[in-house]
Amino acid sequence: MSSTEDTSAKVYVVGGRGDYQDLQQAIDAAEDGSTIRISGGLYNANVQIDKPDLTIEGAIDEDEVTICAGQSEPAFKINLVNMNEKLTLRRLKIQGIDVLSPNIHGASKKKTRKLAFRDADSESWLESKENEDKEVVDEYLEDLYTQKNISSYLPLITLKGGHLVLDDCKLCPNLPKAREQVGLFALPKTKITGHRTDITGFKTEGSLGIYARGTSMELTRCRIGWHRKGGIVLVNHKEKEVLATEKVLITDCQINFNHLYGIFSEGKNASPILQKNKVIGNSGKGIHVGLANLAVIKGNDIKENDVGIDIQSGDPYIYFNRVFRNKSSGIRCYAYKMIPCDGVIRANEIFENLQSGIFCHGKNTAPRIIDNKAIMQNLGCGIQVDEGAHPRILKNV
Q1: Which of 139, 182, 234, 326 has its CA 20 to 30 A from that of 108?
Q2: C-alpha distances in angstroms, 62 versus 73, 92, 153?
């Protein structure tokens, strides 16, 4: 065992000249609350963690640590007792495997694919997806809410219990064709904290960034992009009731260049806070909230998506956002199966969208559109109301 950094936590080293060459062996040997430090290099891992308060981190000042999942199991299965027990992953890159190479610790003849968060080549890829059959898209979103077909996804990380902290990590779901991959899959009564973490898809293959059901979450300064099956999915329990412990905050993040949607949030009384994010270039809906969802959407830049904000029978509070240059409506409101669509749209700047600034559609659609700073220069009209919608419109510029 290596020397300790302080008197309270032991440090185990994996790889190089460390204590272990296999990550699971180090986890099995580690005491609760200790640190496992991984030397730079490529590692194959399908590990299970049920010990509380471990930290697994890449060594400082060494080559990047890449953890490669197998083609049938997650890299990490986390099953702690409750949200008071924590696992911290720091300075790790976690991705799938698709071809063979000789350079991985703990496995033979495996190779990984290098991925980076892309901010170029977006237009041609997104344009190729714009003609996707809308009925297929709607069916897919319904499947997400009801959990149909979600078992076909292979996670890089499965969180079944406890509190997962991701600090300065990269998750790259890139498993080819055989199964679609999700970066992080979280079950009810768990918690996720992410800071400076990228979850990046591979644009020619199917992937989903985060799928969280009944999960508390706090993401800060993260980047989720290039996923063909969407960026972040937040849904409640299948019983359609939200636990008091479920709190979601996504702030100062980049949710860019995903297909179908950037953020998808549905569920009765769920109230995620989405603030100060950049939601850009998503081919589909930048932010979708629905089915009695009480989201707070504040201070975001939402641009160049198909629809900026999509409200389906939700009751969100939308204020101080800049919603502009989206390819159809800036904000779209509509009732699903006569379930009321309400919400407050206040103090936003909504401009230069290619159709309506705000589009209210269908009976039982009655948002309050109040005191917006600017609804202007939209190519269709500022506020479009049709088919029995009855929004309350007051004091807008």
Answers
A1: 182
A2: 28, 12, 33
Up-side HSE of residue 7: CA atoms within 13 Å toward CB? 0
Please give the C-alpha separations between residue 225 and each of 337, 366, 372, in angstroms, as whole numbers.
32, 33, 30
* Beta bridge partner(s), residue 360: 333, 385
pLDDT tens digits for range 194-242:
999 999 997 656 789 999 988 999 999 999 999 988 999 998 755 445 4
Strand partners, 235: 213, 266
Residue type, 107: A
d(CA 277, CA 293): 19
Structure tokens at 330: 């800036």
Contact 152, 180 (CB under 8 A): yes
Q: How far apart are the first and last CA of the chain?
A: 67
User: Which residues are registered as beta bridge partners of 288?
Assistant: 264, 310
pLDDT tens digits, one per residue of 8-62: 679 999 998 898 999 999 999 999 999 999 999 999 889 999 999 999 999 988 7
H helices present in the chain, as ranges: 23-29, 122-129, 134-146
Tokens of 99: 């071809």
> Cβ(156)–Cβ(68) under 8 Å?
no
How does DSSP classify residue 2? P
Beta bridge partners of 38: 14, 58
